[in-house]
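Technical note accompanying the year-one report. For the benefit of new consortium partners, we illustrate the data format agreed upon in the data management plan: each record pairs a sequence with a structure-token string. No post-processing was applied to the example shown here.
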Amino acid sequence: MSTEILLNAPRGHYRIKHVARSEIAKIITLRSSAITLGLTFAACLLVTGLVSHSALHHDPGYYAGFDPTAESLTGMITVALAGGVMGALLITSEYSSGTIRSTLAAAPKRPLLLATKVGVTTVLMVVFCEVLSFASFFLGQAILSGGGAPSATLASSGSARAVVMTGLFIALIALMSFGFGLIFRSTAAAIAAFVGVIFVLPLVMHGISESDVHYLPTNILINAIMSTVNQGPGGQFAPVSPTVGLVLMTVYAAIALAVGAALFVRRDA
């Protein structure tokens, strides 16, 4: 169906709208996409509910330095993991199934094809991650306020920024994983690279140069993007600012996409 959209375009005169429709059709009909998105939505809200509920009914001293916004966004960490898997699947599934050949035959202009793929993936992940970020925030705050714990609103200092940036940051993580998919053309290899960068590299860096750990995606997400209360140590171990953190993640995603794009344009399918 997705390839038919391109084949039905005027011969040799397909436009970006034809490619976009084709890519959207692929995502809609890809069973793994629906399963991943559905499980991610459920897991995120479940984790948010459990974490927020665990913060209830404590002594006043427990809430010193308590960050209700970050507490309610904890479930988004599961979205970061699933987003990496989803980002890789959106491109590697075409290589594993062999449909990439028919796609390239129908749309031989590789730069246009790739730009559209990245654009559709970006819109999908930004919308999905932002919806989940706001849903997590409102669910967490409802639980916290209902149980008498400190809570926040979008008008609270830093809360709106944290909610919006968390969604954007995780969408960028998914795009970085999409870049890994372009580079390796294998779901297993792309996910392995993603896990290595997001989860293994911080552990290695702790032993090599602990002061540089705050430049890594996981640390940025937890200590800069999601946080509205400064609880980290100062000096060289202080977390980067949210804006710097978002810029760094943009650079990481751009590097992965740039390398993947160069290989996509030059290599055979």
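Partners are asked to follow this layout when depositing records. The chain is about 75% helix and 0% strand.
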